[in-house]
Amino acid sequence: MFKILGLFSLLVISMIACQENKNILLQDANQILSADSVELFKYKIIRLTGKLPGKADHTTKFDTIFDEHYKNLSQQHDLVYYIPSQNDKNSIQFLLTRIAPSLHEKKVAIAGKVTFDITGNIIYYEEVFRTWKMLVPELKEKSDLLFRLYLGGKDLSPYYTTNSKGVEYIEFPNEHVRFDPAKKQWVSDLEDPLEPYYDMKR
Fold it and tell me: What pTM was computed for the model?
């Protein structure tokens, strides 16, 4: 009974959020950028967004030896939304999706903000949320909702796993994992059981 009430409450919150943020225009990135510009943007951020190569860590992932890996990885991501800041055209809010391992076609969505200097180097990068993997139609609906809320400056915590009453929206952040803009990566307050073995991969 309590679970049903919780789901109903979250549904009501979602409906209100949709109404409040329906005036926020979401335009497909491919309608405002050329295909080359889309690929260039993805490649510029992929070392921060994508998974590490097998023999890399966060201190070596920018080495040129991994260029081909990240080029291929960037092509496995789709840039859905690309929204420049009204005050700074070099500051971009974005939403990406990528295929997730599953028996059926599922994807995850990644939303964030990146700022470039005048030479195109990243000076600020932050991921706001990463969703759970979902079937594509469900992901489209939920990621659009979350991205509109983010653009509108709304609180996303009701959609965190601990608060979403069993409905999957945001996987990260959670109670143990958060994004650290200074490190430009997700960090956890839990001990990493694989840490002693990282040197063996290098």
Answer: 0.83
